[in-house]
Amino acid sequence: MAPPNFNQASRRANPPVYTLQEGAPVSDPSASLQVRTTYGGGGLGILADTQLIETLAHFPRERIPERVVHAKAAGAWGEFEVTEDLSDITDAKFLSGKGKKTPLLARISTTAGERGAADTVRDIRGWSMKLFTEEGNQDFVFNSLPVFFIRDPIKFPNMYWDYHVNNQEGIHALMHLFGLRGIPASLRHINAFGVHTYKLGKQDGSFVYVKWHIKPEGGIENLKADEALRLAGEAPDYHVKDLYDAIERGDYPVYTVNLQIMKPKEAEASGINIFDNTFTWPHEKYPLRQIGKITFNKNPTNYFQDIEQAAFSPSTMVPGVGPSADLMLQARMFSYPDAARYRLGPNYQQLPCNRPISQVYSPYQRDGPGRMDGNYGADPDYVRSSYTKLSHGSHELATHEQWVGKVTSASTDVTDKDFEQPRILWHTMLKEEGGRENFLKNLCPHLGGASDPIIEEAIKMFARVDEGLGKDIRQGIKNHKEGKSIV
């Protein structure tokens, strides 16, 4: 059965008839059945008024649970195109064959704000993307910064500065967040990073570790704090509108897709923990290899149907793509689909915005609310049946690590090594025009609102990055509280 036609031009020529949800036409959708009085203008409604009852009953059920994080977002349809064949390192078909195109759905969000929050706040942007490949869906759940605040998944929710001074592995992400790229001017001009280490591999058992990087062809553009604050009040949906308007006028955003690639032997000799998402890989040792491009070329037909109901998970991978031993990645592989089942129901993968274009056969998963795929007919709810034969799919990727040992409770410690890359980043900022000034102007008012003991601990933390930085922050907070220029 064909879906409803919501093309505006077509509907103007052939306007639709208003109906009930079951399809029965209604002559006057604004009228209700009543027992009328013989005087005045009152009346009593009756239960036989299906149109009224149906409308009232649906209204309080329109809202679904809001995402706990990444609630506010823009979205678009588009395509991924391979610009360099990767069949030398992976069997993933969507990465094999120069010029091959794969349709995709993307959702770009702030992290902390609720659904009605302003776009132009200092926050990490989430970049979620679903590629509809011939082998099933391939999801990417990226961030606008190359590192994350934590590496132990138990620490995910907590308070801000009190949290950071007691969990200082997040210093690298903090340095990025309060730098020049903390508030993008447009979602058409931001980077996206896989943050985690992933694997690409082949059926012969060979594989490599990779880091994903997405870069806008139009370059990076950012807002200064005062301009962002003004826009937050005047145009809270600034980023959503900017992306929508650009696509609507045919100015399609284009991004390059790049990989850092590391062979297993290189990982062993790298001297870094490649599974720690608070660290980056040095570009001079592992340069970017451009392998594709992304184009956003179509706006959502309906925001709720296409974007709000979209569900993304790093566990959604096709053959040839695999996870690494990054514990944060593994935690997210459980957390994201679990959140989707709560928010959208157990059959959320069957919604049009989530449904694969490839064959799906998973009869262990039956029934449940919202089932719409035939429910596997008369097939048994198990596999290896005498009545229903199965073909065999691809094998999973080979494992580099050999896991032998006891199950233990463990967490990571913060060492001087955690401050090495933030120190390099700070020295890079010092060379950028306005880098030092903007960082201090962004950070000092924010940190200055914390209690004095927390401020002292935070200054000590930044002093571990660079002693001069700690002194600059102390003076900047003092100046700010006295109404003077921070720098």
UniProtKB/TrEMBL annotation:
SUPFAM superfamilies: Heme-dependent catalase-like. GO terms for molecular function: catalase activity; heme binding; metal ion binding. The active site is at 70, 143. GO terms for cellular component: mitochondrion; peroxisome. Keywords: Heme, Hydrogen peroxide, Iron, Metal-binding, Oxidoreductase, Peroxidase. Heme binds at residue 336. It comes from the Eukaryota. Belongs to the catalase family. This is Catalase-domain-containing protein. It comes from Aureobasidium melanogenum (Aureobasidium pullulans var. melanogenum).
